[in-house]
Hints:
By secondary structure, the protein is mainly alpha-helical. The protein has one domain (about 1-45). It is about 80% helix and about 0% strand. The chain has one helix at about 1-45. The mean pLDDT is about 85.
Amino acid sequence: MRRRRRHRARRVLIAQAVLVTGAAAALVAMEYPGLVREIKIWRMMGTSSGARRPG
């Protein structure tokens, strides 16, 4: 009986991991066009991610 419980618990954990991964992938897919647009804006402004040089 205990073996079945372990298997069932493992299946539930795997299912949860799959759902969370799918949700994260969907979020990235939905936000991707906005991120591309932001990167283009940063490039046009000439802003780098590092610290600016004085002067």
